[in-house]
Amino acid sequence: MADLTKKFDVLVIGGGNAALCAAISARRARASVLVLEGAPKFYRGGNTRHTHNMRCAHDAATEILTGPYTEEEFWDDLLRLTGGQTDEELAKFMIRESKDILNWIVEQGVRWQPSLGGTLSLGRTNSFFLGGGRAMLNALYLTAERLGVEIVYDAEVIDLQIENGMFLSAKLKQPIDGASEIRASALVAAAGGFEANIEWLKEYWGDAADNFLIRGTPYNRGSILKMLLDKGVQEIGDPTQCHAVAIDARAPKFDGGIITRHDSVVFGIVVNKHAQRFYDEGEDIWPKRYAIWGRLVAAQPDQIAYIIFDSTVVTSFMPTLFPPIAGATIAELAGKLELDPVALEKTITEFNAAVQPGTFDHTILDDCRTEGVTPPKTHWARRIETPPYLAYPVRPGITFTYLGTRVNRQSRMVMKDGKPSANMFAAGEIMAGNVLGKGYAAGIGMTIGSVFGRVAGREAARNAKN
Ligand SMILES: Cc1cc2nc3c(=O)[nH]c(=O)nc-3n(C[C@H](O)[C@H](O)[C@H](O)COP(=O)(O)OP(=O)(O)OC[C@H]3O[C@@H](n4cnc5c(N)ncnc54)[C@H](O)[C@@H]3O)c2cc1C
């Protein structure tokens, strides 16, 4: 067990990808490093446990990646998906560094596997972790331990002593081996966003947030983020912006993970609790639209919606943990969903009547569309007419929030007066808002954590040694 009464060179708060990349990088730069993970060991690794893939730029196909994904293309994607709400200098820096991360992360013990088919078609842009996020984390923890990084679990930090932009010490919720105050020459904050803090979400979303499901760890309550912002660090990002997808309403409140996400929207229609459609289900190909459905459902009454389809498409998308709810007739299905059967029958009848002839192909923007119904379904519109009729109830599934601490290219936090902090660095979700003002493209969360984690660790070590 580490001697927690000594002063460390670098203290890393958090236990996910960003924290581990920072800890390894700091340790490789010869710093003494302590990682404080608030969660118990079994639940170590925050949202990173649930991940599968990471987006990195590369100039040519590899054994794993099916083709090139240049820095320019990555930048174009980021610009488009954020609507320009990104720090161009930091974003381009991240994209450039991401090229090297593909190899660096392998040097830390992580292994890649080729993309599986899936619904998001990411084989060219994203590398997949062999064994998923948990295996990736296990590799990083093993490497960190072998290098001599000290790691303590159940070590929630409840206060930070910061004076004039300089970190002095962190206070533990409960003493560990007689220590409750941890001192270090430099701090890396990698403690995630505030997505698991329903009360904080309610400040922006009102009571609707009570109906949100949190896809990842219950330990990302934003406490470190709040402390830093309260103690003079400049904030960045819109607090209402987050990554949110439609997940099964039967999922647990926290930690439901990837297997509760529904990718069946383009194969049917989506109605609210009044059995009314409310958005074009075929607006664009699914990888470009899946991340808007969390917000769309959040805006519906009682934050609930239902994806409705028929038996002809059941095998067209990835199955999820929960089976669809089935009815031999639309009225029977409506009854099981507690929807008004007359209203649901009317919505489906009107939709079916509006469907135009076309050639269905969900991999392109096909010509199967509706005419004369509002909202339209502009692609992949096919009649819902073959029983049994099926449905998934969905709620907003919050992945992570974007409000964060402003950082510079050294991953060093910037204070409210615009000056860089003397010794505080941030990486991962806690500073994602620097790159993601809004929007999302699959795999960027891990890019942000890996790139800025590596930089933060290296710079924190350098800072501590000077
Ligand atoms: C279901 C799901 C699937 C996802 N899939 C992908 C994917 O495939 N690709 C991708 O790029 N992104 C994905 N993401 C997003 C991705 O998980 C995050 O962007 C990334 O893991 C963030 O890493 P992080 O280290 O910043 O935070 P986390 O991995 O969440 O780690 C934060 C850590 O901080 C700790 N902590 C919090 N507060 C305290 C405190 N007060 N004291 C001490 N410790 C504290 C937590 O216990 C946790 O260990 C997914 C997210 C979810 C929820």
SSE blueprint:
Blueprint: E1 8-13, H1 17-28, E2 33-36, E3 53-55, H2 71-82, H3 88-107, E4 112-113, E5 126-129, H4 132-147, E6 150-152, E7 157-163, E8 166-176, E9 179-189, H5 198-205, E10 213-214, H6 223-230, E11 235-236, E12 242-248, E13 269-272, H7 286-289, H8 293-298, E14 305-310, E15 325-327, H9 330-337, H10 341-354, E16 389-401, E17 404-405, E18 412-414, E19 420-426, H11 444-465
Parallel strand pairs: 1-2, 1-9, 2-6, 9-19, 10-16
Antiparallel strand pairs: 3-5, 4-5, 7-8, 8-9, 11-17, 12-16, 13-14, 14-16, 15-16, 18-19
The protein binds flavin-adenine dinucleotide.
Kindly describe this structure:
Strand 8 (166-176) and strand 9 (179-189) form a beta hairpin. The two termini are 27 Å apart. Helix 1 (17-28) packs parallel to helix 4 (132-147) and helix 2 crosses helix 3. The protein contains eleven helices and 19 strands. It has helices spanning 17-28, 71-82, 88-107, 132-147, 198-205, 223-230, 286-289, 293-298, 330-337, 341-354, 444-465, and strands spanning 8-13, 33-36, 53-55, 112-113, 126-129, 150-152, 157-163, 166-176, 179-189, 213-214, 235-236, 242-248, 269-272, 305-310, 325-327, 389-401, 404-405, 412-414, 420-426. The longest helix is centred in the last third of the chain and has 22 residues, at 444-465. With 466 residues, the chain is of the alpha/beta class. Flavin-adenine dinucleotide is lined by residues 13-19, 36-39, 45-48, 50-54, 156-157, 190-192, 215-217, 219-220, 223-224, 257-258, 399-400, 428-429, 443-446, 449.
